[in-house]
Amino acid sequence: MYMRVVSMRIKPEQVETFKQASVPGIEALLAEPGVVSSALLQQVDDPTHFYFIEAYTSPEAFEAHMQSACFLDWQQAVAPLLAGEMEAVAYAPVYPPEDEWMLDPKVD
Asked: Given a cut of 70, is residue 77 above it in pLDDT?
């Protein structure tokens, strides 16, 4: 499994635009092969600070996503909304084990 945590700050006047631009991209991402899960988090005490947490089956699945229309369109849409550079870090899961990660984040 290959995981990425991406931190980004958004211009204060662009927070709602960023959220509106990001949700459809997450929904498209979740339909891509090799994507295990994805979440967008907004910091409670700093609403301009966001994190993407993404899990892929492999680094190759992540690389395929980086070339997808869904990612390239999102990147172009949000670039002017950023208040600085995105910071991304790759991780390997410790717990839960890889075979226990949810494949569908929607719970009934």
From this structure: yes
Specify whether the CB–CB gap between 10 and 82 falls below 8 A.
yes
CATH topology of domain 2-94: Alpha-Beta Plaits (3.30.70)
The two counts, helices (H) then strands (E), for the chain are 3, 4
> Residue ranges per domain, the chain?
2-94
> Tokens for 6?
């991406």
Place of tokens 């075979």: 99
**What pLDDT does 27 receive?**
87
Both structure tokens of 11:
């211009």
49, β-bridge pairs? 9
